[in-house]
Amino acid sequence: MNTQKGFTLMELMITVVIVAILAAIAIPNYQSHMIRTRRATAATCLLELSQALERSHAINMTYTGFTLPVTQCSTDLSGHYSFSVANLTAQTYTLSAAPRTRRPATIASAEQPSPSTRPGRRVSRVSRMMPALAKKPEHAGGKSAHEPILPTRRL
């Protein structure tokens, strides 16, 4: 009696093909899910930072001199988004969350815009303006991977 134990090469190849097909479907879905989750978390973090700005404004009656606090959400997203505050005046501010790219650095030339001015770099922006100075939102239309999470807000 000659009984062999184990798998044939054909059985192993069929298993490898099935695993490859499942991985080809699952990995992109997982990556897009993680991007959507981080984007939603960044929008929530911007709202938390906006509340900190409003608390500071309630105490000091101005936004000038405010520095971004270190919050848990900004710490959690520090590898994926950079948060900044700009245009601090007595009545206005602009919060933004820009994605950090993991692409290799390229040499900038005169024809290429700098990374800070490259289209699609700003992910989200929350602004507070006086109604007389309010502008139309800069971004209209549907969301894509390169458009802001939130349009400009007028509070």
Concise account of the structure shown:
With 155 residues, the chain is an alpha+beta fold. It contains 2 helices and 3 strands, in the order ααβββ. The longest helix is centred in the N-terminal third of the chain and has 52 residues, at 9-60.
Layout of SSEs?
Layout: H1 9-60, H2 72-76, E1 81-86, E2 93-99, E3 124-128
Content of β-strand: 5-15%
Shape: rod-shaped
Structural class: alpha+beta
Extended strand count = 3
Overview of this protein structure:
About 35% of the residues lie in helices and about 10% in strands. It has about 160 residues and is of the alpha+beta class. It has a domain of about 110 residues. The protein has a three-stranded antiparallel β-sheet with strand order 1-2-3, covered by helices on one side. It is rod-shaped. The C terminus is likely disordered.
Observed structural traits:
155 residues; alpha+beta; three-stranded antiparallel β-sheet; rod-shaped; disordered C terminus
